[in-house]
């Protein structure tokens, strides 16, 4: 159930503290003084309730609603812990699957005794007893099925944890072995790729990829670094200067 009252809008930790104080038996005025003095409470009241403080009526409504639900949850958790502890103690002394088999065997004996005692008369009484045994048979069958499913789940989960642990061990072994193999092959790869700084960089890159090792940061393993001997200056692509032409003289004094 969604609640939207003053106390219901408070942060969960404050509500949990309030419930604990109610469970300890603190009185209403003391709880209201504490609750209304909290900065979180004042902020909620200013934002949603025009700064009207939490009242005795609000606290009473919370006792009947939110606190009552909290008590139910606490009881459920308490009983769940008790049931878990009891189940563990029982499992240490009694095998659940064997107990279900013993119940089925006892029920089979009850069926046999009922049939042996029945002389064909008193059909109604016989039918009533038989109906009870049928109900017990269904219940025991359900118990056996539940125990089998639980055992299967436990076995599968245990196997999953063991497989996960083994995979982790195998990965650690592989990683340690890969580091050894990478170190042994690095020298051969350096020579294969021409030696020098460039060969070392490419060899480190290849071994890192092959053996899933960490790569060096900010490192380009392929491009070789240029040295003064192999650096080539680009040729400027400027258009050629136009050829100079001899000046042309025109004689304008000649007569036609």
Task: Describe the 3D structure.
With 256 residues, the protein is mainly α. It has a domain at 12-93. Helices cover 69% and strands 0% of the residues. The protein is built from 8 helices and no strands. It has helices at 12-23, 28-37, 39-48, 56-64, 66-93, 96-117, 123-192, 196-210. Helix 1 crosses helix 5, helix 4 runs parallel beside helix 5 (66-93) and helix 7 (123-192) runs antiparallel to helix 8 (196-210). It is flat. It starts with 11 loop residues before the first helix and ends in a 46-residue tail after the last helix. 5% of the residues are buried. Mean pLDDT is 78; it is low at 222-237 and 248-256.
Mean of residue pLDDT values? 78
Give the strand content.
under 5%
Q: Output the structural class.
A: mainly alpha
The stretches of 5 or more residues where confidence is low (pLDDT under 50) are: 222-237, 248-256
**Principal-axes shape call:** flat
Intertermini distance: 121 Å
Instruction: Give the strand tally.
Output: 0
Which series of helices and strands comes N to C?
Answer: HHHHHHHH
Compute the CA-based radius of gyration. Answer: 45 Å
Number of distinct helices: 8
């Amino acid at each position: 159930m969604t609640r939207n009252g003053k106390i219901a809008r408070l942060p969960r930790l404050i509500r949990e503290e309030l419930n604990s104080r109610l469970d300890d038996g603190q009185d209403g005025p003391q709880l209201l003084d504490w609750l209304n003095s909290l900065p979180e409470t004042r902020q909620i009241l200013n934002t949603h309730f025009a700064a009207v403080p939490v009242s005795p009526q609000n606290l009473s409504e919370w006792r009947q609603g939110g606190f009552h639900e909290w008590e139910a949850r606490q009881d459920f958790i308490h009983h769940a812990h008790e049931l878990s502890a009891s189940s563990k103690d029982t499992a240490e002394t009694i095998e659940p699957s064997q107990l279900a088999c013993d119940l089925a065997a006892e029920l089979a004996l009850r069926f046999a005794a009922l049939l042996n005692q029945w002389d064909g008369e008193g059909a109604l009484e016989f039918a009533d007893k038989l109906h009870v045994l049928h109900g017990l048979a269904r219940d025991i069958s359900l118990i056996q099925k539940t125990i089998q499913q639980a055992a299967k789940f436990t076995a599968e989960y245990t196997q999953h944890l063991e497989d996960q642990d083994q995979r982790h061990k195998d990965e650690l072994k592989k990683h340690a072995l890969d580091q050894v193999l990478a170190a042994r092959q690095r020298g051969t790869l350096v020579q294969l790729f021409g030696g020098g700084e460039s060969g070392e960089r490419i060899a480190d890159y290849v071994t890192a990829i092959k053996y899933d090792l960490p790569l060096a940061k900010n490192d380009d393993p392929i491009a070789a670094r240029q040295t003064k001997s192999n650096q080539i200056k680009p040729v400027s692509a400027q258009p050629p200067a136009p050829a100079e032409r001899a000046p042309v003289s025109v004689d304008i004094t000649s007569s036609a």
